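Query structure, 97 tokens:
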């Protein structure tokens, strides 16, 4: 099988890669790069193409799929973080007395 042939992947893996690629394309990533990232994610999640044989089943590692949503830090604004820090400081101060 030549390199890059996706024949060893299940239909589910192919669909998953297609959806991931579409998500990258919507965010402005180029077609080739989006496809590369999508297949890298599928490989990281499932360990590659379909594997035959008894006992070869493994749980999928879903962490690579979730990673993108957690990048970039807090969803709070600067003012919200500041307000929360001041409130915590006041609470700790009042409990010391």
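Result returned for the query:
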């Amino acid at each position: 099988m030549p390199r890059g042939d996706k024949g060893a992947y299940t239909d589910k893996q192919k669909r998953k890669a297609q959806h991931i690629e579409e998500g990258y394309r919507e965010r402005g990533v180029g077609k080739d790069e989006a496809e590369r990232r999508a297949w890298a994610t599928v490989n990281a999640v499932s360990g590659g193409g379909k594997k035959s044989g008894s006992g070869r089943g493994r749980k999928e590692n879903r962490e690579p799929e979730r990673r993108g949503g957690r990048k970039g830090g807090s969803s709070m604004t600067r003012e919200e973080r500041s307000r929360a820090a001041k409130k915590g400081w006041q609470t700790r101060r009042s409990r010391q007395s």
